[in-house]
Specification:
alpha/beta; Aspartate Aminotransferase, domain 1; Aspartate Aminotransferase, domain 2; 2 domains; 7-stranded mixed β-sheet; 3-stranded antiparallel β-sheet; 12 strands; 38% helix; globular
Length: 386
């Protein structure tokens, strides 16, 4: 009989919560209208569901419903935020615009920034400490000809779980470049349910969310766009006029209802669940230590995400020897790459250390028994301390 599989990759995606599936079901089969059809009851019902969902998501992060724009996920939200804002600033001809971000950002941020660089925008790298936090004491030098700065910061790192002190970083940038207007873009895809998502406290202008990262459906996300800057954002696609023409196209009502339900559950249960997961993490590390396994933790962030370095091992080979465990070498967007993680290199790890590291992520269905099994299998294939 085959051994049961253990899922430890919740940063890549999460299983759909049954309560979310139940909330979505009527909108697949009964209330299946297009929310933009304003001449009949099917459209009205769908529109009401979208309005209620938008309200719920806005409440979950403390903003106005008119500041929530639905997308297909955080990748699209990040692209719309960065490229849309950069194009808007360029069109406004308000002076030179630059982008500040670190190498620890997700590819859905670093790659749009690379695209903007090819379009003539100037990116400036932010250094991070060995713990993965942006180093506010080492901000780059900028000319006073810079009129606007786009500051991109990931709230919770997808590979290490490191939580950035966003409000502190923003204030440091504002103080360091008093002559420039700063626009703060936050990728909060890994944050919902793990930390409080608070755009107003962060001082954020744009915040990206993705439903499948917090037990909602795949294929839907949202971006908070501060009301005062919505006129600056240039759309990436055209046609239809939905979502204030910033993201046109018929809205997927079942997915939006599911996202809102998942956000509500995350708000209610997230703090308690984080405590449970913290206890599981502590138990896992204690077991590794007691088993004599030599390891290091890369970064110390949210309890759910553990980036584990096993000196002397090649993580890719190690994972191949654990076929019943869903583990990861890093971001799901880098799954085919065999090069060292840019996130870990930016934190000061050598290529060899980075290649000996892997990520495991705990979630709602993770049990102590799952982690016991993992440690037992690791003991069988790893050299132990003498």
């Amino acid at each position: 009989m085959a051994e049961a599989r253990v899922y430890l990759d919740y940063a890549a995606t999460t299983p759909l919560d049954p309560r979310v599936a139940a909330a979505m079901e009527p909108f697949w089969f009964e209330q299946f209208g297009n929310p933009h059809s304003g001449s009949h009851v099917f459209g009205w019902e769908a529109e009401e569901a979208v309005i209620a969902a938008r309200q719920q998501i806005a409440e979950s992060i403390g903003v106005s419903p008119r500041e929530i724009i639905f997308t297909s996920g955080a990748t699209e939200a990040n692209n719309l935020s960065l490229i849309g804002l950069a194009r808007g600033l360029a069109e406004g001809a308000a002076g030179q615009s630059v982008i500040l971000s670190s190498a620890t950002e997700h590819p859905s941020v670093t790659e749009p920034i690379g695209f903007l660089q090819d379009q003539g925008f100037d990116p400036y790298p932010l250094t991070v400490t060995t713990e993965g936090e942006i180093d506010c004491d080492r901000l780059p030098s900028l000319s006073e000809s810079v009129a606007t700065i786009i500051l991109a910061v990931m709230a919770v790192n997808s590979e290490t779980g490191v939580v950035q002190p966003i409000a502190k970083i923003r204030q440091a940038v504002v103080d360091h470049y008093p002559w420039a207007r700063v626009f703060l873009q936050v990728d909060a895809a890994q944050a919902m349910g793990r930390i409080a998502v608070t755009p107003l406290q962060w001082g954020a202008d744009l915040v990206s969310l993705s439903a499948h990262k917090f037990y909602g459906p795949s294929g839907v996300g949202a971006v908070y766009i501060k009301a005062e800057i919505q006129g600056l954002i240039q759309p990436l696609s055209y046609g239809g006029g939905q979502e204030k023409s910033l993201r046109p196209g018929s809205l997927p009502v079942p997915l939006i209802v599911g996202m809102a339900t998942a956000a509500a559950i995350a708000g209610m249960e997230g703090p308690t669940e984080s405590l449970r997961i913290a206890a599981l993490r502590q138990g896992l590390l204690a077991q590794l230590w007691e088993a004599g396994i030599v390891f290091k933790i890369n970064g110390n962030g949210v309890p759910a995400i553990v980036n584990l370095q096993l000196p002397g091992m090649v993580a890719r080979d190690l994972l191949a020897g654990l076929p019943n465990f869903a583990l990861s070498l890093g971001s799901a967007c880098h799954h085919a790459e065999l090069t060292p993680s840019p996130v870990l290199l930016a934190m000061g790890l050598s290529p060899t250390e980075a290649l000996s590291s892997f990520r495991l992520c705990l979630g709602r269905t993770t049990t102590a028994e799952d982690l016991n099994r993992l440690v037992q299998e690791l003991v069988g294939i790893l050299p132990r301390a003498v």
